[in-house]
Amino acid sequence: MISLKKNFNIAQFQSLIALFVLCLALALLTDNFMTTDNFWNVMRQISVNVCISVGMTLVVLTAGIDLSVGSILAFCGAVTAGLLKNGLSIPSLNLFIGFTVLGAIVAGFLIGGGLGFVNGYAVTKFKVPPFVATLAMLTMARGFTMLWTKGHPITGLGDSFGFLGTGWFLGIPMPVWISGLVVITAVILTSKTRFGRYIYAIGGNENASRLSGIPINKVKIWVYSIAGLLAAVGGVLVTARLDSAQPNAGISYELDAIAAVVIGGTSLSGGRGTIWGTVLGAIIIGVLNNGLILMNVSPFWQQVIKGMVILLAVIIDKSNQKSE
Amino acid sequence: MITKPTEVMNNKAIKYGIGVVALALVGYNSIYIQPLDQKLAENQQTVFNAKAYVDGIWNQDLAKAYQDCTDILQLIDSFNQDVNSTFEKNSHALGIGNIGYFRVKGEGIVIAVNENNVLLQVGSSRIEIETEFIFGNALRDASGLVKINDYEDTADFNSISEAMNDRIRQEVIPSFRSKVKEGDSVKFEGAIELNKVHLNLDQLEVIPFTLQISS
Predict the structure, then answer these.
(1) CB atoms within 10 A of CB A11
(2) Does residue B40 form part of some domain?
(3) Where would you find the membrane-spanning parts of this chain (chain B) (predicted)?
(4) B148 contacts in A (CB within 8 Å)?
(5) Which domains does chain A have, with CATH numbers?
(6) What are the residues of chain A with a beta carbon less than 8 Å away from any beta carbon of chain B?
(7) Domain residues for B80?
(8) What is the ipTM score, two decimals?
(9) Each residue's pLDDT tens digit, B74-123
């Protein structure tokens, strides 16, 4: 009972109610919302946001922020697509290295984890504020993407790669399986491991954690690396789904991820929040996006409404903190 | 229960052993290596040659398509009556959206030879024949001959437009620009791009496919 209380805080309860009200309203206002096709459509769409939001949650739990996930997503998607399609040529050695689907994906993941590592290293070793360090990475990764793709989409990646984004397994879309696996792993990581407890402890009180002997820098570097890795997972999903790596993919995805984290009840000051809350936040954003489209709301108004929802979530979070 | 140092060592060795085997398996299934010149030779056989493709259709299919085009004055008249049905009947487009491409022909009197275009008076309308900025997909898409689904790679698909525009720049424009002057009568066939929602018929811009001067 205690653990249930701990894992299911008031913010999540509010989010659940908000989701229920949202679904009810959309079911009444539109004809197509409560259909199986639309349900899977929403689930597929939120899969990418779920992956990067889970990484963002870990970062935010340590009282950090990662603005670079959208750009890392684009770069890793482009690297995966580029290696899969064109491989690597080394003219000086008369060598061509071709990549299988597995190889290209692993390379994309390694790049994502590596860029996340750079973020974590800058934050911990050079004491660069997370906002600035990841903002710099946002720009750099976008630049790398443009350099790698030369500004053109990389398309025609083959059916076996496309299956990851468009295929179904046991009646469930592949992106949902993959994001589900990410969520379950993250839940176990945060709630059942020492590493997870360290994350909460650092976000709760960094000085006390340091005095307790928690390896703060090491944990934070791991957290940013995982966030980069999960952005890469998102990148692979987006690329597989579109059968194309777009140089401008992932723009503003970091904002959707932060929104999911905040709406899900994770405190931006760190130490408080859950992965399930973030999943709930991502679903709310996905349903909101879907509903606004089904209702033919102008894209400009959609942005305004999403912004208002995020603001509302933060205000509610603050009032919850006060009351606690 | 005290773990002996040798047991710890053994556990670590097993862990590292499994890790190395897993890495080796992933690595083995991830990449393949071959000589670069061999790969380039293979690519040469499969690479799409847009120029050759365009050369192949230029005098036959493409010329035939552009001979079968709508008179520009009739098109304007049709727009004035019903925009949607004119788009439906006459335009080609790649997918859903408001942009449509039209094959048009006409004859007019040159009223200005500008740096980037030649302005014609066609009936009561002014038509701009582009001579400098020959870009975009108007020629390809208005032809209706080239379908995006036939191409796995959008770069290949786009290279067809580049090849068509190149040929216009090299073969159609220079001889026309060198001879054309105000007062000439010019016959043209070409393509225009129009937006259904923001339709502007004031001075239509034609990307030419053929241009003929009769003084």
Answers:
(1) 25
(2) no
(3) 13-33
(4) none
(5) 42-314 (1.10.3470)
(6) 87, 89-91, 93-100, 102-104, 106-107, 152-153, 155-156, 244
(7) 50-214
(8) 0.72
(9) 999 999 999 889 998 888 887 777 889 999 999 999 999 999 999 999 98
